[in-house]
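Practice problem: predict the structure.
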Amino acid sequence: MLKGKSIILGVSGGIAAYKSAYLCSMLVKQGCDVNVIMTENALNFIAPATFEALTGNRTLTDTFDRNHEFSTEHVSQADRTDLIIVAPATANVLAKFAHGIADDMLTTTVLACDCPKIAAPAMNTRMYDNPVTIDNIEKLKHYGWEILEPDSGRLACGTNGKGRMPEPERLLEAVIHTVSASKDMAGLKVLVSAGPTREDLDPVRFITNHSSGKMGYAVAKAAAARGADVTLVTGPVKLPAPAYMDVVPVVSANDMYNAIADREENSDIIIMAAAVADYTPVSYSENKIKKQDGEFNLELERTDDILKALGENKRSGQTLVGFAMETENVVENGEKKLISKNADLIAANSATEEGSGFSGDTNRLTLITSDGKEELPLLSKDKCAHKLLDAVLRLRK
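Answer:
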């Protein structure tokens, strides 16, 4: 999703600099052209050759380095950069950024750039909590910087508290959110459901399905990256809660029904990607149901049909999207669901086709509307999510 993006990775002098190498590798794997600029203090923690091996680009450290092509290096870097991320960002470098000090290659380049900027502070807890640092961070936010809140834990200085640089995966998430897509959904409120639901039988057992939540999470993250105000209602999954959205965890189908009912009226787009249980036990046993000889009959009743309820109450200007996971007659069943649920779009796929079932990282969707269908090739779920949102925006024109 970042293919072709030009990223400057700034590395200042902190023990967390080793994590920056992992972030650098991730960005390169995403297809970015990564240029690393290190402060003099950063050279005490990691060698420039590490980044040069990862990026294929010369690591910049000296504003007056004579061993580069004839150009004003900090200006030429600024002209071709889509985003700057500084990780780790020490208290010292944050103070320089906040006050426009340009006394090395990193601070000079940052001052010359008008692209989006992200900083990942990493420092001793007392330094982070110092009123001066707090003021500098607020000043940077005022100037448009995104400041990633540091993690808490044991720090290199031996104390415990806030000040650890977030893990590279969180930093990559911030980069993807900022520059992976145009902000063509800015101003829209998007409600997404994801994952399975669990219907409890007793304190030990429950009924559920194989949904991993990956497709719904991909849709929510794609919408947020495109500028939407996103609410994600999620069943129990093993995925980390995504940033840049309101995450509402639920368990049962009834929980999900209530959470969505409370939020649907103010939503411009509702995308029901969750695999909601169709049936729930009639009764719940307060104690574990003991094994007995012979057959055991479990009585079930229908759960509320969330998508149908949304279709019946859909307001003017609201776009409703449902998912249809089928094992046969995928398109035909998707077309029936489009009509019966009064949806605007159904994203249908097969549970049995290789690469498009539950839990994987790819999917093959057929996007069904009243005007026809669009069959997508096998794509990553991230790319499927953007194709789906493209179709939704076309419907809203």
